[in-house]
Amino acid sequence: MLEICSLIARAGRTHFWYDELLTLHVSALQPFTVLLSALHAGADGMPPAYYVIVRLARLLPLDSQITLRLPSILGYIITLLGVYWFTRKRLTVAAGLTAVLLITQSPFRSCALEARSYALIVGFLAVAAVLWQKVDESRVWMAAFCAFLTAAVACHHLAVVALSIFAFAEVVRTVLSRGVRWGVWGSFLLAATPFLASLPMLMHFRAIFGRSFWSLPDWGTIFSTYRLYVNADVNLGLILAIVILVACAVALPKMVQRWRNATPEAHFPIPEVVLICGFLCYPALLVLLTMLMGSGYVPRYGWPAIFGLASGAVYLLRNRWRDARLLILPATFFIVFAMRSTADLRPPAAADPNVASQWWAHLMEAGRNESTLPIVITGGAFYLEAVQYAPPSLRDRFVCVVAPDAAVRLTGSDTVDRGNRILSRFVPLRVEELARFQSAHRRFLVVSDGGRFDWLTPYLIERKYPLSFLSRNGDATLYLAGQ
Fold first, then answer.
1. How far is 100 from 83, CA to CA, in rounded Å?
2. Which of 220, 238, 282, 367 has minimal CB crowding within 10 Å?
3. CB count, 10 Å around CB of 181?
4. Would you say 451 and 381 are in contact if contact means Cβ atoms under 8 Å apart?
5. Are the CB atoms for 400 and 377 separated by under 8 Å?
């Protein structure tokens, strides 16, 4: 409960960033058929099922910064429950709590504060892993396993890769037990249906963005992904994953010998160890898949690996958890967790709901003599944030100028420009083509954040367009363009 309260408190005072603003705008489209049209057009890559969940959350009479993030908070909480139940079935309470607290101290916690589907996917997969342990006990568990696995794939198409992890673990279980669980295999087929149904939309999305997506994977992406998962200067995530994989490989011969002797396994049985290792390898599988498909990849796609990292970490100490001295681990983690969560409940000393408006007012003070000129916000991501948080008196003057060819040449990507152009067909945004805008406006103001998607500023410099510096506020700079 402490964690839920602290997350809601943080969510209420945390501004949306670009991807979350896509969720905000698309989820507000009415009726739902218009929302579907926007997704099919390529306004966002999230599937319709996720937006059904978000729209249900938006029915609550709360601030949108909370309601849009409630599904992610829910996903984060059920992730914690899932990893505890999965670990507790084979190890001690202390082991289960340690696995949970490891996740609370990881950067995965930030996914609970993102109005995107990543935390929800991890939560569904974690509970599916728990139900997979129990499917032999009741048909109810089998049906629930199918439902959670299907929900994960329905919330993000790349979650279909998790089906291969479960399938491989199930193959190992089938070989060892010499019995096929047809209900499990049927669940895999049903869980794949959301992915198959969304293939036309995915192919269209790939045709629009795939060639110049802002984050195309390479071999180094695997290493940077694991490094992100523990937020350390050294790649502790990859080191931990390798240590767990090696430990499992070393333990495998003895586990096989116990199986041949019909000796009950005291800890995780072989199929569950295979499942843990599969989750550890999930980001690497995604990178390889997206490289082969020529699709985009960002590290948050691979967050289901946190389930493997947490359960695998406590597996390393499987023979020590009954030692009372090891209780110092969950106790230490809990103290850090409680201090952090309690701190999140306290609002910042200088909290001011109008701080964003004040920031923009300060920046635009230098342009007060040009109060009739349009204001071009460079970088499509910066543009959406400006429209959301700048003073209302300025928003009607904001323009997002797009030129995909120039954007690709100068920044290597036109993803955001293309996305904003599609979104403007469904949301009242002022998105204009570069040539048309230049022909209509000889003079205009430019606000540049210097970000990686700002192609316009180097374009104007390249064309020797007159730029006069007016003001700087933080990372943003105000120019007057034209004579």
1. 6
2. 220
3. 16
4. yes
5. yes
The dihedral formed by the CA atoms of 257, 258, 259 and 263, expressed in degrees to the nearest 10: 150
CA dist 136 and 461 (Å) reads: 67
Q: What is the pLDDT of residues 240-280, one digit of tens each?
A: 788 888 888 888 887 777 777 666 666 788 899 999 999 99
> How far is Cα 479 from Cα 471, in angstroms, rounded to an integer?
7
Q: Are 460 and 446 in contact (CB under 8 A)?
A: yes
**What does the alpha-carbon distance between residue 443 and residue 425 come to, in Å, rounded to a whole number?**
26
Residues 6+ apart with CB under 8 A from 59: none
Please, are residues 190 and 154 in contact by the beta-carbon 8 Å criterion?
no
Tell me the one-letter amino acid at 261. Answer: N
Report the range out of 150-159, 232-241, 450-459 with the highest average pLDDT: 150-159
Distance CA 152, CA 159 (A): 6
Global confidence as pTM: 0.91
**Going edge to edge, which strands form the sheet with 467-473?**
431-433, 398-402, 375-377, 444-448, 476-481, 467-473
Three-state secondary structure call for residue 435: helix
445 forms beta bridges with 375, 480
Question: What's at 218, amino acid-wise?
Answer: D
Four-residue CA torsion sign, 61, 67, 68, 70? negative
Cα separation, 117 vs 289, in Å, equals: 20
Place of tokens 């390889």: 288
Task: Confirm if 238 and 223 have CB atoms less than 8 A apart.
Answer: yes
Cis bond leading into 31, ω under 30°? Answer: yes
Cα separation, 207 vs 199, whole angstroms: 12
d(CA 433, CA 456): 12
